[in-house]
Specification:
This is ATP-binding protein. One of its GO terms (molecular function) is ATP binding. The chain is of the alpha+beta class. Helices cover about 30% and strands about 30% of the residues. It has 7 helices and 17 strands. Strands 2-1-3-4-6-5 form a 6-stranded antiparallel beta sheet. Strands 7-8-13-12 form a 4-stranded mixed beta sheet, sandwiched between helices. Strands 11-14-15 form a 3-stranded antiparallel beta sheet. A hairpin with a 2-residue loop joins strand 16 and strand 17. Helix 2 runs antiparallel to helix 3, helix 3 runs antiparallel to helix 4 and helix 5 crosses helix 6. It is elongated. The termini are far apart.
Length: about 325
């Protein structure tokens, strides 16, 4: 049955129209299931013969367009790439005035294009918006929320989002058959290990330079070869010192393949700087060199000789005083 026709039939049969002039339906993921009643987090509304997807979201922030327009606009901008790809627009944003306490209840109406769409398609748009809103607590994506999205198989939600100081994407595998590829992998991890907040490297997603930086443009699934994880681990074991604490290297399943996810949590200061055995000098790989890199914004910079000397001098000063950082090799 056509969704519009089904909604109109409910109006004719029950004449229960909310005060705003719409019909609310709770809809399951089953294309053919309709249930009149109180809406859940994803629902549908019909107004003036126009069908809307409704999303009810519990926010830990007071996101009011009247009093917090900058925060709301930041969330709108973050939602826009996802909605554009799914042929939908954000029609209205309403903060529930009654529940004026954490969590705050936000109702959002989305207007989707309907041609060629099933109820399942529309429901999945609502699911994607809910997942992205949950990840956008604070109006910006965090490293932890991005990690959750990737592990939940929702990598497509990141398309259109910017890369940043803790997120880097690569469209294809590092060439781990060559020393240069192994050094490049070690440097990618070292950049985040030497940074303050850690970071995430996603292999199998493509970025593009845009004004002001880079943004994620598409998913480039890799062949489903779980054995490649050991090659990544081996390359890092041989070219990165010391081993970063709690480094995760894992496969994430997506349509038509996998992504490789390298998660580098924030590292203890006493382990820094992380050293890479090998360096790329004027495009050539020098296997006997030692390189130290760190992340700044969306680019990487080498750690300077004065910074390295200051670190070594501080370590010597501690040794002279008979102090060693916790967890150092000299600890019993």
């Amino acid at each position: 049955m056509d969704l519009k026709a089904a909604m109109h039939s409910i109006v004719d049969a029950f004449c229960e129209i909310p005060s705003e002039g719409g019909v609310l339906l709770e809809v399951s993921e089953d294309d053919d299931y309709f249930d009149e009643g109180s809406p859940g987090p994803i629902w549908f509304a019909m107004k003036s013969d126009t069908l809307f997807i409704g999303v009810t979201f519990n926010s830990n922030e007071f996101l009011s367009e009247k009093t917090e327009p900058d925060a709301v606009n930041a969330v709108r901008r973050a939602l826009e790439p996802f909605l554009t790809r799914h042929r939908a627009v954000l029609h209205r944003w309403t903060l529930d005035p009654v529940l004026a306490a954490d969590p705050f209840v936000i109702n959002i109406l989305l207007q989707p294009a309907l041609r060629g769409r099933t109820l399942q398609d529309l429901y999945e748009i609502g699911e994607g918006v809910l997942a992205l809103l949950a990840a956008l607590q604070g109006a910006t994506l965090t490293r932890e929320a991005t990690l959750d999205l990737l592990r939940a198989g929702r990598a497509e939600i990141l398309i259109g989002q910017p890369e940043g100081p803790w997120l880097d994407v690569k469209s294809a595998h590092y060439d781990l058959t060559r020393v240069g590829g192994k050094v490049s992998l070690a440097q990618s991890v070292a950049r985040f290990a030497n940074a303050e907040h850690g970071g995430i490297v996603v292999v199998g997603m493509k970025g593009k330079k845009v004004p002001g930086g880079e943004e994620i443009r598409e998913i480039c699934p890799l062949p489903d070869d779980r054995g490649v994880l050991r090659k990544y681990q081996s390359a890092l074991e041989n070219h990165l010192y010391p081993p970063p604490d709690y480094l995760d290297i894992e496969c994430v399943t997506v349509k038509e393949g996998i992504l490789i996810l390298l998660h580098v949590p924030p590292q203890p200061e006493e382990l820094k700087p992380f050293l890479v055995h090998g360096a790329v000098v004027e495009g050539a790989t020098e296997g006997a060199f030692i390189s130290i890199v760190r992340r700044r914004g969306e680019s990487s910079i080498p750690i300077t000789a004065p910074a390295i000397h200051a670190t070594l001098a501080a370590g010597r000063a501690l040794l002279r005083r008979g102090e060693l950082p916790t967890g150092s090799p000299a600890d019993p």
